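Hi R.,

As promised on Friday, here is the backbone we talked about, encoded as structure tokens. Could you run it through your design pipeline when you get a chance and send me back a sequence?
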């Protein structure tokens, strides 16, 4: 699909290396994802066979350094996320759960033993990870989690025993390792849990209308026993998981614009080919207004993502800025996908075209890693200095 969405020369702000990364991922999406995504989505199938190929592409733990990780920049990772989500949000979500959540948690907060055991295998696609934070009754308020880890015995070497339930956990049923967050007598702590540990059960959530080419699960933890060494030593309190969530939110800022761009380009091509009343739809003023509005928001959202990426690479990205990007770009992307679907008429409700699939997926993307309401309050707190969460 010809990409003429860049109205203001944003590509000129990218280095040759950044463009090369983008083009490499875009080519992968064109050959490996686009020809198959309608079938995967219709069958609600996550293609496990694509995991080793994504590892070869260098997008698993892409922004992490050492331990076999690619060590690319934040902007390069963002560009990759944009191209992956132009293919499908579910495939970008896999990369996000694997790298920005599970791998980041181990990389940021793990012991050297934990890093050496898991990160090289995860970067190579030989092990899949998941990130267990959200619970059936604790989504936007993870401080209310009921999963509890207790010490069984005295001393620092005593085992941990975990009980609880996690929900909407990506990849859990196919993962080899889970990062599980639990309340303890000493606050929230994270644990590295091999999924073959007795007491770990992951059940896929089915009958989804969104993210169908992806896996989300409910995890049941029943008297799951772990050695003391399973705890992430450098994560104490909610700051630990929140730092990982911000990594995932950053990728979403870029990814949502990929879904928006693909929806826009699909509507553009369709409107130039579809004849109504003797001329192409694209020749009507109302159609051109819709296309222009889409393109404007894509350009603004991409500039926003790039600015945040530059800040991240410079070490200056702030949490409220991540909320600005996540709130704006998800909100605009879902509006663009819906408008694009409408422009396709009846044909737009089929899997022959991408916008409704993107719109459905974006319902999930807009919800996870912080709802619109949560990010609005994060920004509101920054603007006013008054927290209004309660």
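Update: got your reply. Pasting your designed sequence below so it's all in one thread:
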């Amino acid at each position: 699909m010809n990409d003429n969405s860049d109205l203001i020369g944003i590509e000129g702000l990218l280095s040759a290396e950044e463009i090369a990364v983008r083009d490499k991922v875009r080519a992968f999406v064109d050959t490996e994802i686009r020809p198959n995504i309608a079938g995967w989505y219709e069958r609600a199938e996550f293609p496990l066979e694509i995991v080793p190929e994504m590892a070869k592409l260098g997008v698993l733990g892409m922004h992490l350094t050492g331990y076999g990780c690619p060590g690319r920049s934040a902007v390069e990772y963002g560009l990759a996320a944009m191209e992956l989500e132009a293919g499908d949000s579910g495939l970008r979500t896999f990369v996000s759960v694997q790298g920005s959540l599970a791998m980041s948690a181990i990389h940021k907060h793990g012991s050297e033993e934990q890093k050496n055991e898991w990160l090289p295998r995860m970067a190579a696609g030989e092990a899949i990870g998941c990130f267990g934070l959200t619970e059936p009754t604790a989504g936007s308020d993870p401080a209310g989690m009921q999963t509890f880890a207790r010490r069984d015995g005295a001393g620092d070497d005593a085992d941990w025993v975990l009980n609880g339930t996690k929900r909407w956990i990506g990849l859990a049923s196919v993962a080899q390792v889970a990062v599980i967050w639990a309340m303890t007598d000493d606050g929230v702590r994270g644990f590295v849990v091999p999924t073959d540990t007795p007491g770990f059960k992951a059940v896929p959530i089915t009958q989804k209308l969104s993210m169908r080419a992806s896996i989300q699960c409910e995890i049941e933890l029943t008297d799951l026993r772990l050695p003391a060494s399973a705890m992430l030593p450098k994560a104490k309190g909610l700051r630990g998981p929140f730092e990982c969530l911000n990594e995932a939110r950053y990728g979403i800022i870029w990814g949502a614009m990929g879904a928006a761009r693909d929806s826009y380009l699909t509507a553009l091509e369709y409107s130039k080919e579809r004849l109504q009343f003797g001329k192409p739809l694209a020749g009507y003023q109302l159609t051109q207004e819709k296309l222009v509005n889409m393109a404007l928001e894509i350009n603004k959202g991409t500039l926003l993502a790039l600015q945040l990426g530059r800040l991240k690479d410079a070490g200056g990205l702030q949490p409220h800025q991540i909320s600005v990007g996540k709130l704006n770009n998800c909100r605009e992307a879902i509006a663009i996908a819906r408008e694009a679907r409408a422009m396709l008429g009846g044909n737009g409700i089929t899997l022959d075209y991408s916008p409704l699939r993107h719109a459905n997926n974006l319902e999930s993307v807009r919800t996870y890693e912080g709802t619109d309401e949560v990010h609005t309050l994060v920004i509101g707190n920054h603007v006013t200095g008054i927290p209004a969460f309660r």
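One thing I noticed while checking it: Residues 239-273 form the longest helix (35 residues).

Thanks again,
M.
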